[in-house]
Amino acid sequence: MKLPLLLVFLWTLTTFSLQMEQVRAEMEQLETFDTQQVVKRQEANQRLRRDLDKCRNGLHAGPPPTEPPNGSCPYGEFLNISEPRVYTAGEYPGSYKYGAWGRDPKPEPGKESWHWLVLMTSSNRYSNYVRQYHSLSSLIVGQSVPGNVLISSSNPTTNTIQGPNVVLYGGSLYYNCYNQHAVCRFNLTSKTVTNVDLPQGTRYNSKGNFCHLDECYPYTDLDLATDESGVWVVYTTTQDFGNLVLSKVEEGEPPKLNQTWHTSVFKQGVTNTFVACGVLYATRYVSKDVEEIFYSFDTTTGKERFDVGIFMNKMSTNIQALNYSPVDQMLYAYCDSNMVSYEAMFESSGDSF
Ligand SMILES: *[C@@H]1O[C@H](CO)[C@@H](O)[C@H](O)[C@H]1NC(C)=O
Ligand SMILES: *[C@@H]1O[C@H](CO)[C@@H](O)[C@H](O)[C@H]1NC(C)=O
Ligand SMILES: *[C@@H]1O[C@H](CO)[C@@H](O)[C@H](O)[C@H]1NC(C)=O
Ligand SMILES: *[C@@H]1O[C@H](CO)[C@@H](O)[C@H](O)[C@H]1NC(C)=O
């Protein structure tokens, strides 16, 4: 009687440790893969950034570039979006409905595979820290090393993060600062905050939100975005009658706004936006399973389109934050407490990578 039981026990134990070993090996593989991908993408990205610069300058001086054939994006036209690539509840399953995650497109050396997470920890509205993970796999299994970087010990206070559409770029978090129509920038190294005001008339404090049908997403007045050229802010103003406005944010100290573009798409008919290759894209709600990238505005040509027609399959009903990462051409979405990523597919995605 006892021997078979012991055997079963030993067998279970062995299977279990074999499984653990397998999981560990898979995690290691995933991390190596993470790092290799990042290095490869960064090399490609530097090349593409040069191409983009060349191309931009080409519009004003010198002979017209032969590459790219269409538009200003070195990858060609944005054509489609993949099925979800990463889908994880992360460290706090179901705890925080509003948040954002991603990776820094311009990381400090050694932090190339780090990922970040910002959760609206209070009233679905405020946050006072950035949580960091040293790889995608550590974010998935919920092991935060090196942990949190605090903006202040409590919230809300002057420089509290208000609203989920934040981005990390160049070691700084860009976000809507609490109770102001301004972009705040929190430098995670110096732990200081500097800011830049948006124009008078900018809607803030949940008065210029993203919406679908008759429901709006609270405190989504300012949507920060990253692309190949840096940081952008998407918002709306009273004088623009609630239509989307897009401004380039320059990295200097303090940050400054550069050029601004006015669109004719009504923000309340949009659920979120992202910028890729200098083109603003807007999404709208189709059903609980599908979101549509329906609109684009090309800042190089000023051309608007309402017929983009790219569909995203969702893992849950709402998208609270959405951003494009120029290091890996992925879209990072935060959806009802879950972190989801998608691959953005361009005309030449397949060839270059
Ligand atoms: C540019 O795009 C247009 C329409 O999308 C297409 O008709 C044209 O052939 C393209 N040009 C090149 C050089 O690929
Ligand atoms: C776009 O990608 C989806 C997968 O996300 C695929 O099912 C669909 O066929 C693609 N559409 C086109 C036009 O390639
Ligand atoms: C952040 O602070 C560090 C240390 O003071 C500094 O070297 C870096 O330039 C700052 N970053 C920005 C974007 O100002
Ligand atoms: C504004 O953008 C232009 C074009 O990219 C650039 O040449 C200029 O330096 C920028 N201005 C500031 C203040 O950064």
Automatic annotation (TrEMBL):
SMART domains: OLF
Signal sequence bounds: 1-25
One GO term of the biological process aspect: signal transduction
Keywords from the named record: Secreted, Signal
Subcellular location: Secreted
A GO-annotated cellular component: extracellular space
Pfam families per record: OLF
Domain Olfactomedin-like: from-to ranges: 72-348
Protein name: Olfactomedin-like domain-containing protein
Native source species: Amphiprion ocellaris (Clown anemonefish)
